[in-house]
Amino acid sequence: MPLLINIGMLASCRPEGLQGDIHPIRNAALAWQGARIVWLGPESELPESFRGEPRVDAKGRLVIPGLIDAHTHLAFGGWRAHDFVGRIQGETYLEIAGRGGGIHHTVDMTRRLSEEELFLRARGFLQQMVDLGVSTVECKSGYGLVPEEEMKLLRVYRRLQEEQPARVVPTLLAHMVPEEYRGRRQDYVDLWCTDLIPAVAEAGLAEFCDIFVEETAFTVAEARAILEAARANGLGVKVHADQFGDRSGAALAAEFGAVSAEHLEFAREEGIRALAAAGTVAVSLPLASLYLRQPPLQARRFIECGVPVAVATDFNPGSAPSWHLPLAMTLACLLQQMTPGEVLKATTIQAARAVGRQAEIGSLEPGKLADFAVIDAPDVDHWLYHFRPNSCIGTYINGTQATS
Ligand SMILES: [Zn+2]
Questions:
Q1: Ligand 1 centroid to 294 CA: how many Å?
Q2: How many angstroms is it from 398 CA to the middle of ligand 1?
Q3: DSSP E strand boundaries for 317-402
Q4: What are the beta bridge partners of residue 370?
Q5: Which of 65, 112, 163, 190 has its Cβ near the most Cβ atoms within 10 Å?
């Protein structure tokens, strides 16, 4: 039974309490057996029977639950530096999409890659996320658009789950209507409802279905049809909502009892209250706000209304070309006025809720899986204040070191 001793601060991030209650233990120790946590507490209270066990010295550092990136688009082809330059020169996201850049370009580049090529690329990204302290990553499809290409992306995620240590949570994302269905929107929505969603559910290739409710993507009515089919086929529901304007996406997410609603930069009071009542997690994506030079999610309004807030990277080649979750966390402090404690809970237990895994991961408690990271900082405040390329010393997943 391995032991981690001499932990300066162990942030257990238990679910109870407020968003900022990380339930820290000073001068702590942590014990696990196989994949699960057995004991944690002040080292002075370490049970006598554990004293002879093999131990690792944390040297006074911070220990946190393994970070959970609850929103990424991990598998894609190409990059979009040209869009980045266009945006700096004044083009908007919607203008870029309108001239065939943006998602269209990524769809084209993704379709050109084989399943093997996509797998190798995504595995490389994932290992670098693990090295930063991340143990679980939600991964969306959505760059294939036609059924066979969407299935290809989901098979990449299944293989990642099977062949590398990080936990992968696969989500089928309805991103936009493809060129092939120009002028035939209803046919595309029907294809999702009657063919793609049942096929994905039957093959067990996704846990969630997400939909982009936006001017360039799907209307609320179309989203409702797709989400109803998802629910009927046993998939959980997520919604990309209110990113570029209030399109009642938050209210739609609440109506469907979604586990999470994402973006929400333009959500209004009514939508925020509906999310609170539904217990839906608001997933904020500060890297996307920064890269799009848009106002960030108003986290204080959500927290004051009782909505659990998660922070994720939104890693994708357009609006958030970085998988660096600790950078997103520091940005959440600065742009969204969240305290470091609130942000840590946003990437642990609240993020676990956003991917439906709160029973197993997201906090350090006896019985939960031994996913944790050792951070070279004395406490959470210092870690997120003193931004460095990588402060993570080691990431453990299922009780085993997973850092490269
Ligand atoms: Zn996204």
A1: 15
A2: 27
A3: 372-375, 392-397, 400-401
A4: none
A5: 65
Q: Which residues contact 311 (CB under 8 A, 6 or more apart)?
A: 283, 284, 285, 286, 325, 328, 329, 332, 336, 338, 343, 346, 347, 351
Residue 330, CB half-sphere, CA atoms under 13 Å: how many? Answer: 13
Q: What is the pTM of this model?
A: 0.97
Count Cβ neighbours within 10 Å for each residue of 136-168 and write b for 16 or more, e otherwise: bbbbbbbbbbbeeebbbbbbbbbbbeeebbbbb
Tell me how far the alpha carbon of residue 175 lies from the centroid of ligand 1, in angstroms. Answer: 9
Q: How far is CA 363 from the centre of its chain?
A: 16
Q: Separation of 361 CA from ligand 1 center, angstroms?
A: 22
Least confident of 133-142, 260-269, 330-339, 358-367: 260-269
How many Å lie between the centroid of ligand 1 and the Cα of residue 239? 10
- Determine the average pLDDT of the residues in 58-85: 97
Q: What is the pLDDT of residues 174-202, one digit of tens each?
A: 999 999 999 999 999 999 999 999 999 99
Query: Which of 323, 308, 313 lies closest to 289 in space, CA to CA?
Result: 313
